[in-house]
Amino acid sequence: MVPHWRRRLPLLLLSLLCPSFASAHSFENTAIVRTIDLGGSLVHVTTTYAVKALEDGAGVYTLALAERELKRTSWLEAKIKGQQNILAMESAGFDGESGVYLFSVELPETLRTNGTANLVVEAIETHATYPWPEEAGQKDGQSLKYETDLFVVSPYKTSVERIKIKSPSPNILSYSTPEGLDEFTMEIPVTKSGATITYGPFSNIPATADATFLKPKQKEVAVHYNYDHPVIEVTELKRSAEISHWGANLNIEDKIHLHNAGPKLKGHFSRLEHQASTFLGRMPPHVLPSLTLHLPPNIRSPYYYDLIGNVSTSHLRVGHLPAQQSSLLEVRPRYPLMGGWNYSFTLGWDSPLADYAGYDKSTGKYVIGVPLMTLVPGAVVGDAEVTIILPEGATDVDFFPPFTPIQSYVKTHVTYLDTVGRPAIILEYKDLTTKHAGTVYVMYKVPLSAHLKKPLAVATAFMGLFVLGFAVRRMDVRIQKK
Amino acid sequence: MPLAYSLPTDLSPATVVNASSLLRIVALALISGAAIASRLFAVINFESVIHEFDPWFNYRATRVLASEGFYEFWNWFDPTAWYPLGRVVGGTIYPGLMATSGVIYSILHGLNLPVDIRNICVMLAPGFSALTAWSTYMFTKEMKDESAGLLAAAFIGIVPGYISRSVAGSYDNEAIAIFLLMFTFFLWIKALKTGSAFFGTLAALFYFYMVAAWGGYAFITNMIPLHAFTLILMGRFSSRLYVAYSSWYAIGTLASMQVPFVGFQPVRTSEHMAALGVFGLLQIIAFAELVRAHVSSKQFQRLLYASVIGMGILGGLAIVGLTYKGWIAPWTGRFYSLWDTGYAKKYIPIIASVSEHQPTAWPSFFMDLQLLIFVFPAGVILCFRELRDEHVFVIIYAVVASYFAGVMVRLMLTLTPCVCVCAAVAFSSVLDTYINPVEPDAVEEEAETAGDGAVSASSTAVSTSSGSATKKGKKAAPAAQPGPLGGLVSTVSAVVSTKKGEKSRGIFGGDTRLAVLLNALGMLLFFVLHCTYVTSSAYSSPSVVLASTNPDGSQHIIDDFREAYYWLRQNTPETAVVMSWWDYGYQIAGMADRPTLVDNNTWNNTHIATVGKAMSSSEEVAYPILRKHDVDYVLVIFGGLLGYSGDDINKFLWMVRIAQGVWPDEIQEPNYFTAKGEYKVDDGASNTMKNSLMYKMSYYRFAELFGGNQAVDRVRGQQMPKIGPTLDYLDEAFTSENWIVRIYQVKKEDPLGRDLRTANAFEQGKRRKRSKPVARRRAIV
């Protein structure tokens, strides 16, 4: 816990001390291109800002997100175009009047007047689409609806702006044509070519992160499109990773609650129709018959069960390092997951500890990297709880999650023949996506005495039993001596 | 005395004693290991899962006990069972099994061993079977000696008759009850032998445990009094018997009344009166004995005896009178069905509908006991040789249990320990006789006639062993002239012909010994093979999961039950009431966690009959019943696609019979047969059958699956009509992969107030047929 506070504290202070450093006059957007890649539960939004500095020494650019955008966004990352480095980003407060949340991005170098930079901001939105119509029959297709604000919200003036919405299939059922945009464009505000809908270009847009603009002039657009894959949601993910030094083993167990967030099944499930569509190879898009997961390589003794026992319908192909970077697990739920249906299961495996852990001789500490989550492709993870259970007697525990959790704490976990229990690190997250699949690094010390604690305790207990038996056998408790 | 083979002479007696005691411990440990291991087929072939039906309830109750604590469990009212009645679980079960698992669970968790409660439940039966082997060893040791005890332990450890109820996962009362049965009997014998109130009390405590664990405790309640009574009749009354019986009965009965489900039954039902009567009789006799010790007059003695008998008769009459008055409950139906196997079918179809209540078929004796069933009578006869008090017990046990095992398949379980004990006594007698190196003094006897008889007897006894061994035995027979007496015959004839002198008994020569011993060993070996085979093939299927083989020989699991139950659990509201035939009630409650109308605790016949009526009536009749009971889903088991013969259509006649028992005017069994009296589901099925809800739900859209080809029901081997039944009041909600489980949702009433059939017809665009045009004309007055 301590490191996070320490890391966040100075920035927090900074933002408190200079609340007004998002000055509207330091930058101008010469062009904004926003590309929205529609998907099922995840929508990728990439916005490129061509930025021109209006004053010398401008080094902190301010991004703005409207309230709905912020709620949807689970991942936000800014880079300079063509560079790999991720720019530092901090929350810069909330503008109550316009209802806009501000984020400040530190540019790698300050710009002079008229100096330019290309800023690429990547965001992943979750729960942004919803099935429309809300119910679909078993044989029907699946279509989703996505609604968003038209203009990119920015505290700076923008010269040219264009918004592209890409649908995964060219089959777009409808899209809205905003009206009353004569102020910004003379042409038709929207064009469709193939699977892409382009709004704009719009020119000469004032600073949009402003109540005077947002309320009267911001438009809302909606796209209704076909989606050919099931919309999967992991409503709850509980991962526990248990480290065993004696067994040289890292056990990872995931408890997963799956939910098919596609249109609800209208009427009832007919096995007959399902078998017919399987037989013909025309599975309706909202049905999830099976799931392919990538697990780490070199895993052993995998298990897949749910609340009422083992599920026998799964196939595992174990990958071996270094040729294969992952093992492939094909999981079939007990029943095909129709729209609106749930399924919960537990998945676990053992892997050799050496693949994950190392020993740092200079500090005498062990370092272990635990993968944060198993990727369920295309799915958003609602609530995630990651528990990392260290060996009994581990001390000096430090941990470094790939990004800040909602909550994190250390508690004591008592399991097989433990005497004092093991430290367990618990990290809680919300709305995890593909981008979040990082590694939690944990450092800890285990003294030799802690290693020997368990065998000694068990040996002592048995010894006690034998001594007791020995004494009882030799005691004469008869009242009447023969 | 001449010796057949030499024995080492340089061993001190202490070494022999120590070595044999070590060997015994090792042997017992190995037997326990074998007993546990042979029960694990189900876990290895399938998984660690609770089997069948009743165990699911026990498992569910145990989970409540483990998670909520004992008092919560004790006061547990389960509103989801027997909807809408609910069930007071704490007061209507034998809590011994759950309490045992709960105790094991808390001990393990106290040691920081977080073993899942499911695994404890699954492994409880194998674990207790090891204890059963040990208690059988102790019991048999009292009968004969340690070697017989070890044999008996080995027998009971692997005999299929016991394994059938105690494989891993079959978490039922019998799992611990057989151990308790044998241990209580052992303690009783011990108490009787020593006349110790301590052992009598121990017997009472274990009797209490047994009462808390299994309804079959009535077997002990009647066996021990019967034994005591027989001993009295044989003139073997002693203070030992008095102490043992009185301490057992007084403490045992008081303790047993602490179990809520038993309550006051020990003093108020006929099943328990024998124990009470014998207790009274013993007091009277003891009193008479006391008086006789002080009085010498013959006349007074005669008077005393007359009064004793008079009091006995009076006591008996009092019991009869109380029964008629209603103070003592008369015998229950289950009891009558023990004497008249046709009784249940006539009066209580619900008992007769359970397959394990059927009379036993002959082959199952061989399947469950193999060679033991043949050796068993010999063991009983051997008990007559000494006829000590405990032998009387075994003889009574053998007679009573044999009868019961013949009446009900399920009671094979109580016969099995007795068979193992007797067979072990017989077998160890043979082995003793033939291993004993002492040769008798040569005495000329007319060996020819006896010899022939012996050979034929022994060859029948080893009919299961290989032919070569038998031949060897025959060849060896003439070689050793005077001693070809088969082990059995020698001992039996020794009993029968008491004329022979003690000295003439024994075996001559080493080859004779070898022949018989090898034979015996071969028999034992084949017994082991048979047990393993039967266990693995017949008794290790969880029945929740079905197994078949893929074309490439690998195992394919058919998991339809759990598929459907899990679907219910995950995708229906938690309060959705599921109606199914009572067989599946516990499984639905355990796996799907949904309220059920009826379940395997068949205490309310009318409620079950209601379900039977709903299943066997037409939709229009069934619909109000379903709505009145708030039924949301109806679940049927249908095996027609896969050929799973335990499905609801095959059980359907029982539903009809049970419903007929309550509504004889509305449901009649003959209506479900064709005119020729056949039970058919194809075109020729009777109309009542075709219109019944069960038929419709089973075959709904079944014919369409065959895509225009002839649809075939693979269980009944009948061709189905091309146009299947239609449903108006129910909707198909879920069908499992192999169509074994089909779930239907009950429609709500039509919002426009039409009946659902009309509403359906309207929706499908059918025009309503006008019934007769209404006459517009007014009647002229």
TrEMBL record, chain A:
Subunit-structure text: Component of the oligosaccharyltransferase (OST) complex.
Task performed by this protein: Subunit of the oligosaccharyl transferase (OST) complex that catalyzes the initial transfer of a defined glycan (Glc(3)Man(9)GlcNAc(2) in eukaryotes) from the lipid carrier dolichol-pyrophosphate to an asparagine residue within an Asn-X-Ser/Thr consensus motif in nascent polypeptide chains, the first step in protein N-glycosylation. N-glycosylation occurs cotranslationally and the complex associates with the Sec61 complex at the channel-forming translocon complex that mediates protein translocation across the endoplasmic reticulum (ER). All subunits are required for a maximal enzyme activity.
Predominant subcellular localization, coarse grouping: endoplasmic reticulum
Family: Belongs to the OST1 family.
Pathway: Protein modification; protein glycosylation
Record-annotated membrane-spanning stretches: 455-472
UniProt KW keywords: Endoplasmic reticulum, Membrane, Signal, Transferase, Transmembrane, Transmembrane helix
Compartments (UniProt record): Endoplasmic reticulum membrane
Signal peptide coordinates: 1-24
Species name: Rhodofomes roseus
Name of the protein: Dolichyl-diphosphooligosaccharide--protein glycosyltransferase subunit 1
Domain of life: Eukaryota
TrEMBL record, chain B:
Enzyme Commission numbers on file: 2.4.99.18
Skewed-composition ranges (Low complexity): 450-480
Catalytic activity, reaction form: a di-trans,poly-cis-dolichyl diphosphooligosaccharide + L-asparaginyl-[protein] = N(4)-(oligosaccharide-(1->4)-N-acetyl-beta-D-glucosaminyl-(1->4)-N-acetyl-beta-D-glucosaminyl)-L-asparaginyl-[protein] + a di-trans,poly-cis-dolichyl diphosphate + H(+)
Region spans: Disordered: 446-482
Membrane-spanning parts: 21-44, 88-108, 120-140, 146-163, 175-191, 197-220, 241-261, 273-291, 303-324, 365-384, 391-413
Cofactors: Mg(2+); Mn(2+)
Membrane topology: Multi-pass membrane protein
Pfam family, one: STT3
InterPro entries: Oligo_trans_STT3, STT3-PglB_core, STT3_N
Domain STT3/PglB/AglB core, chain residue ranges per copy: 577-627
Subcellular location: Endomembrane system
Biochemical pathway: Protein modification; protein glycosylation
Keyword terms: Glycosyltransferase, Magnesium, Manganese, Membrane, Metal-binding, Transferase, Transmembrane, Transmembrane helix
A GO MF term: transferase activity
Enzyme class: transferase
Statement: the UniProt record of this protein carries the keyword Ion transport: no
Span of domain Oligosaccharyl transferase STT3 N-terminal: 23-422
Family: Belongs to the STT3 family.
PANTHER family associated with the record: DOLICHYL-DIPHOSPHOOLIGOSACCHARIDE--PROTEIN GLYCOSYLTRANSFERASE SUBUNIT, DOLICHYL-DIPHOSPHOOLIGOSACCHARIDE--PROTEIN GLYCOSYLTRANSFERASE SUBUNIT STT3B
Protein name listed in UniProt: dolichyl-diphosphooligosaccharide--protein glycotransferase
